[in-house]
Amino acid sequence: MYTQCNHCNAIFRVTMKELTAAQGLLRCGECDNIFDAMKNLSQTLPEERRFAKLSTVIPAEIEEPIPIRPARPLEKLLKRFLNIKSWHSRYFLIIGVSALVLLLILQVLYISRNWLAQQPMTSALTQQLCALMNCDVTIPRDVRAISLLSRNIYSHPNAPKVLTISASIQNNAAFPQPYPLIEISFLDKNNKVLALRRFPPEEYMHNFTEKLMPIGVPDELILNITDPGEDAIRFQFRFM
């Protein structure tokens, strides 16, 4: 006997035993739709459906498919077509999933950009990418990790009442960081501040281009400041 799915019009060969066991309800092997096989039950294959595919049907309560041999050689061509269609579906599915994964990774990197900017291995790359993408990133800084390696003061050779201070500073942090604001103060014998001046990086770095202090590399700097007079007996540095 033959029956037909009312959803995709696929034709199936069935037995009365199968219909009785499933109470007339079968699952279409083509569209997975459950249909009433008794409504379109026929003893013969209709002439206009002679070349339609005889597909596998599954009783609604049974999970295992019932194997049925194809009625005509046309079934091989249809299977090949379905396999090609399935391959294309998997191909586009892989592309879609890959795009979603890439988008998720970019979102995680964007959210973690400040943390990545503080890591020695990813700091420079993170700042370069954020510069290209025009996103804000908080550059880590720790002025306590900047050390004064040497300092010296002497009268300016060409300008009267001007003192020249030469010094060497170094970034000992585990990450590159912005150059600090340097405060120089002169004190008398009672530790009273007689003169104070703060120097931005543009004033003490030659050809400063807003670059970061490298890790463990000394920077030599020259500062000029007005002579505070004979009462000043010492001076001190402070990084800000």
From TrEMBL:
Signal peptide: none
Domain Zinc finger/thioredoxin putative as annotated: residue spans: 1-35
Cross-referenced InterPro entries: DUF3426, Znf/thioredoxin_put
Keywords: Membrane, Transmembrane, Transmembrane helix
Transmembrane region(s): 91-111
Domain of life (superkingdom): Bacteria
Pfam families: DUF3426, Zn_ribbon_4
Hydrolase in keyword set: no
Protein name, UniProt field: Zinc-ribbon and DUF3426 domain-containing protein
Natural source organism: Thiothrix litoralis
Lineage, broadest ranks: Bacteria, Pseudomonadati, Pseudomonadota, Gammaproteobacteria, Thiotrichales
